[in-house]
Design a protein that fits this description.
about 325 residues; mainly alpha; MetI-like fold; 15 helices; globular
């Protein structure tokens, strides 16, 4: 009885790293500049994180600076014993959580509504109008807010008083200021943030909508059962990134909108670092605060990503 001989599969030829470079050198060349940017502006400056644990001296290098008291933890203890830091930490968390709760769903809702518009010219006009605030600096936005919401000369309060009501202290009272801060942030960013969701919607297979139309589904049913599940991975990824940025508020917005009457809620970590570090020359203290801010942000990011994976969603990795 003859046994059939099977021909061995051809061995897969392994290519060396040098051959990959020769074959795809254009792609590696394009990758070189971003990697150089990350190295020069992101990784090399991390050497100076040591300042958080050392007594800063302008005449010494970071390696020569003496270690701070309490085994280098002096400035962390000093920060957490400072009432201004505790207040700035509270304000940062509260304002960013409000931004997340109020501002995160609005670009999604706007993208869903915009996707349902039939008239192309009107749709493009709405997109252009809502994108425009993103390109305005916060100094200009504060000037617009001052013209609209000033207690006596603002357009909104002038209309309210003309109608027999009392002027609302949008910019002078802490409670009103917080919601004005949130409203201006949403107005400035929701149009631009909706671009990602519109791109995700464009990637959904159109045959799903056609099949749903044959089955008699209406617009709302298509939106609920096709569009939302189609952009769900994008929503989860952006939500994870937003949670990781809970302590990472920018500087321009709170600094431009704050004033002496609302400093109890307008002072956030970024303005605290500016006031104590740049103006107060306490570089070790504010480096410690910035390091704490970064570590907590990474923990939030990892926690949100782990939770999303546990719930069956795709995370960042």
């Amino acid at each position: 009885m003859k046994t059939s001989k099977t021909t061995p599969a051809p061995a897969v030829r392994k290519q060396s790293f040098g051959s990959y470079i020769k074959r795809y050198w254009q792609l590696y060349l394009l990758l070189f500049l971003p990697m150089l940017y990350l190295l020069v502006f992101k990784y090399i400056p991390m050497i100076y994180v040591q300042i958080a644990f050392k007594k800063y001296s302008i005449v010494q290098s970071v390696w020569e600076m003496p270690l701070a008291k309490n085994h280098g933890m002096q400035y962390f203890i000093q920060a957490f014993s400072n009432p201004d830091f505790i207040r700035a930490l509270r304000n940062t968390i509260v304002l960013n959580l409000l931004d997340l709760v109020v501002g995160f769903p609005i670009p999604i809702i706007f993208a869903l509504i915009l996707n349902e518009l039939v008239f192309t010219k009107f749709k493009k006009a709405v997109q252009t109008i809502t994108y425009m605030p993103h390109f305005l600096s916060w100094v200009i936005i504060y000037g617009i807010a001052l013209q609209l919401f000033a207690p006596s000369t603002g357009l909104v309060n002038m209309v309210i008083t003309k109608l027999g009501g009392e002027a609302v202290p949008f910019l002078n009272d802490t409670g009103h200021w917080v919601w004005t801060y949130i409203f201006l942030g949403v107005w400035q960013s929701f149009g631009w943030n909706s671009i990602v969701y519109l791109a995700a919607i464009a990637g959904i297979n159109s045959e799903l909508y056609e099949a749903a139309s044959v089955d008699g589904a209406g617009r709302f049913q298509k939106m609920w059962h096709i569009t939302l599940p189609g952009i769900k991975p994008t929503i989860v990824i952006l939500l994870i990134m937003a949670i990781g940025n809970i302590l990472g508020s920018g500087f321009d917005r709170p600094f431009a909108l704050q004033n002496n009457l609302v400093m109890s809620w307008a002072e956030v970590l970024s303005t605290y670092i500016y006031r104590y570090g740049i103006k107060g020359l306490q570089f070790s203290l504010t480096t410690a605060v910035g390091l704490f801010q970064s570590i907590v942000g990474v923990i939030f990011l990892l926690g949100a990503n782990y939770l999303s994976r546990k719930l069956g969603e795709r995370g960042l990795w």
